[in-house]
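Example (one chain per record):
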Amino acid sequence: EHRLHQRLSAQQRTEAEQNTAFLLARALWHQSQRRLDAAWRDLAADLAKAPGDPGVEVPALWLAIDTGRTVELRQMLAGLLLREGVSNANEYWLAIAASWQRLDAAPRALPWYRLALARAPGDPLLLLSYADALNLARQPGLAARVRRHAWLLLGDSNRRLTSADLGKLAGLDEDPRRGAAVSLGESVEVRGPRHAPLGPRGHVGATLH
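Predicted structure:
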């Protein structure tokens, strides 16, 4: 993709930049190279060209979370929450939850995490992000139960975890405000105890209040 971009003439590049798919692809390439300002410029241009397109808005939310662009996050959230149907558009839920968490508004993140968990109640990393938000929302008891349940799910699946995942399990995430935006790191295999109950009712779906 980078080689193709270099081969474009100035006129071809100008024409290509009118295409939202081109801008999105280039933004993702910039992001992979950690050229985050350039990635944001392309995504911002895409947002202007394709308002309401989740294929553009969701990556823009995640990049804003990752780079701490809180002003842009607030602007995007304000527009999204005025739009009809967002609460039924599952592609937005996790990004909106993590956005509120990044903005130190964990109580506003919780309903969006619950929507996401209703679709994927057995996703341990989603549960860990929800537990972080619960901690920030001053619900440590429920956060501990959710985190314990995530540990049991991870033990059952024997999935491989990154060092950031392990920090979440231990409650030691350096910046829980970043929500589900998990950094890459060395992976290790975790095995945990099996089939222990989550709490009095024994099922995470029954305790997400």
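Caption: The radius of gyration is 19 Å.
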